[in-house]
Every structure is written in structure tokens, then in C-alpha cells.
Amino acid sequence: MSKTRIKYICGNCGFESLKWIGKCPSCDSWNSFAEEIVETKKNSSAITSKNEVVNLVSITSANESRIKTNVGEFDRVLGGGLTQGSVVLIGGDPGIGKSTLVLQSAEKISGIVLYVTGEESLHQIKLRAERLKVNSENILVLPETELDVVLAKVDELKPTVVIIDSIQTISKSDFENAPGTVTQLRECTALIMQFAKQKNIPFILIGHVTKEGYIAGPKVLEHIVDTVLQFEGERTSSFRILRSQKNRFGSTNEIGIFEMHDTGLKEVTNPSEIFLGERNKKITGSVITASIEGTRPVLLEVQALVTPSNFGNPQRVTTGFDYRRLSILLAVLEKRARLKLSSTNVFLNLAGGLRIDEPAIDLAVCCAIASSMLDKPAPSEFIVIGEVGLGGEIRAVSHIEKRITEAEKLGFKKVLLPSQNKKSIKSSSLIEISACDNVLSALELLFDNVKS
Ligand SMILES: [Zn+2]
């Protein structure tokens, strides 16, 4: 026996309510609630399981059977490739290049790839494939939106990988709600998960991020699937970053970097070179630092612009860096380095569209702000690394040798780093090391005379 009743569900996060609400109490989005029919199944008393007890030693490791997409940056974010029977959700704004990424990867996967399209017609897919110069006999395209038909086809063809573009278009006609509603999305994804695990076939689902509208966002699915990847980038920049938000089979720190061209996505295997490519060495407010993204060091340029504010409320704008962290660093500079920043506008930007949460770039942010404030360019042969504490002290950072090696590789001659880190450096590197233990001495080393 099952009962049906009506509920109101937030299309963004899946929050459920018995009455309609204008603003979601869980994710704060407006007008996101829609009426849906919810079926409540009565628990059957007899639970049977077909699973058997297995000795831990005899279980094969997931790493052994990974399916490589053979797109290095994609495999890196996945943790070394697709795991058998896993479900990967790729989210991102419409038009950012999700379909391009999966289609290009499909060509490189060795084995049959079933591409289920609910969004585009066969003709449109062909056009895209021609533009990307993807021409593989291993890619089978199925224009279908009914889940049962899709799964039956997968069962029949037994492909190596299944791609569903997009999950929001897939529905199951037994459910009473319209395609794209939270209930449909959740139920269909749960069924795909079950099926993938049973048949040991990995699924890649594409999900659109929609702030408003009826189509439910991938947030609802995050708990269900194994891996959630976010494909992001600025509209104006050609760089695209694939970021892992959840990964049952790998680290969530890894990022994959791509560049969008007319003919599709190209992997960026040397991000430091690209991010530093447009640097002007004589400009004030620019400092180079080394961050660790996942397991790989990335050199990047921190840009700051400090201007006097004529109004009572100075502006603070940051791109790629945490706003609250910037406020803290400004307060530290004001108090510990005696820079009068309280009545200035401060704009901070990480070049290349990267977003960094790592405190190891704190010192570079401080130096960039000071450089713009003092109107003195930072010496261009320097790379600046260190976390800054509230007392103005510079704290040690992890993976210092990796960062230094990357800086050396790109031709930097000097590194400014925390005193604590200097002690731990064993190798006799060619780079000249300057160590500081507080912000003021770091600024004095870079800019000789800190007086504003
Ligand atoms: Zn919500």
C-alpha cells in the first residue's frame, strides 16, 4: 500500500514544506518552491538482502579497475579515472562547456560510450562533434528521456561508460510529477545509482545550475551520487576549472584546468606559465605567490589596487579570495605595519580566475596591498609565501619544497618565506632564500622603507 500527498519542495536545495513559502529557510532562495506529489511507501516487514559476507582481504581495490577518460586533467580530479559502478555528477552554469568536456572525453575513453541526450537533437550533437573534431565509432548516441528505456538500452549494450546530458531531462513516467521536479530528479538519480552499482557501469550525469526556475538544481543530488564535480569559469575568461566538491573515490582538493578554444577544450598542464603569462613586472600592487592546488603547485599573481576613498564607506572588492580573510589582513596591516588603510578603497584580484582558500598566500596579499598603497613595485624576481596571523606574525606553510621547486622551474631567483620554513629546507636549492617572521619586516625587505 502506498499513499500520495502533496508537498512543497525547494527546487534549489530540496527542502520540504507542507505549505508554500516564498523564501526557502534552508538556502535563502526566493520563489523556489513548487507543488509536488510525494508517494509514501509503507515499509514492508520482510527485508531480504542478496548481498553476502565477503572477507576484507579478498575485496579488490577500486583503484585497480579505474576506467581512464584519458583526459589527464579530468582523470586527476576524479582521483585517477572513473571507478566501476560510480555515478559522477558534473554541475555548472549553462554554456560553460560541460557537454564539450564529456564529448571530448568520450572520444578518448577506450571502449563503448553511450551518450544519452535529452537536451539536444542528434543533428545538434553531430554539429558539436564536428566542431570539436570528435569522430569516433565508439560513441553511441541515444536521444531519450524515459529512464526505463535508457536503463534497458544500457543493459542491452553493456557500454564501458554512460553519459546522461542532462539529468534534469530524464524522467520516469510512473512518477506523477513533471520532468525536472525535485521528486523526479531524486528518484531517477537514486535508480541510476542502484543500477550502476548492480551492473558495475560508471555513469556521468550532467546537471545544470539554475538559481531560479522550475528545474531543480544539482544540490538536491549531491547526497545521492558518489562524486560531484563543478565546472566553472568566468564568461569573459577562456579558462575553465573542474573542481571536485565531493568524491567518494579520491581527494576533493584536486582541480583540473582547461582552456576553451574554438575547437574545444585544451588541457592546461603548466598552469603557472599560463597564469603568469600576462604579468607586467613593473606595475605596483602585483606579487607572485605559490599555492598548492590538490597535489600540484601553482604560481599565481596577486593583484591589489588601493585608492583613496572620498566617502565615509570605503569599498573592498575581492575576486578569487575570501572577503572576510581580506578584512582580517587589512586590519593586521593597519595595526602591525602601520599602513593607514581604513579610509582607502581596496580591490584584490587573483589573476586567471582562480579561487584560492589557502592561507599560504596571505603574505603575498599583504605585500600586494602594501605595494599599491606605497606606490612601489615589488621586486619582480621575488616569490612570496607565508600565512599571516593576527599578531602580524608569519607562520609556516606546508609543502614548501614543492612550491620552491616550481618557482625555480619558472625562473624566479628569490623567495620570501616564513622563518619556521627555512629551518626545514634540506636541499641546496639555487634560489636565494629570505626568511621573515613578521609582516613589517617582510614589507621592509621588499620595499626598503615602509612609510605611508
Ligand atoms: Zn532551498
What does this structure look like?
It is a single chain. With 452 residues, this protein is of the alpha/beta class. The protein has three domains: 2-41; 62-269, P-loop containing nucleotide triphosphate hydrolases (Rossmann fold, 3-Layer(aba) Sandwich), CATH 3.40.50.300; 273-447, 2-Layer Sandwich (Ribosomal Protein S5, domain 2), CATH 3.30.230.10. It has eleven helices and 21 strands. A nine-stranded mixed β-sheet has the order 6-5-7-8-4-9-10-11-12. A four-stranded mixed β-sheet has the order 13-14-16-15. Helix 7 (323-336) links the parallel strand 15 and strand 16 (344-350). The chain is globular, with a radius of gyration of 26 Å. Zinc ion binds at residues 10, 12-13, 15, 24, 26-27, 29, 32.
Record the SSE blueprint.
Layout: E1 2-10, E2 16-17, E3 33-41, H1 72-78, E4 87-92, H2 98-108, E5 113-117, H3 122-131, E6 139-143, H4 147-157, E7 161-165, H5 182-199, E8 203-208, E9 227-232, E10 239-247, E11 255-261, E12 264-267, H6 271-276, E13 286-293, E14 296-308, E15 316-319, H7 323-336, E16 344-350, H8 362-374, E17 382-384, E18 387-388, E19 394-395, H9 400-409, E20 414-418, H10 419-424, E21 432-436, H11 439-447
Parallel strand pairs: 4-8, 4-9, 5-6, 5-7, 7-8, 15-16, 17-20, 20-21
Antiparallel strand pairs: 1-2, 1-3, 9-10, 10-11, 11-12, 13-14, 14-16, 18-19
Helix pairs in contact: 7-8, 8-11
Bound molecules: zinc ion (ZN).
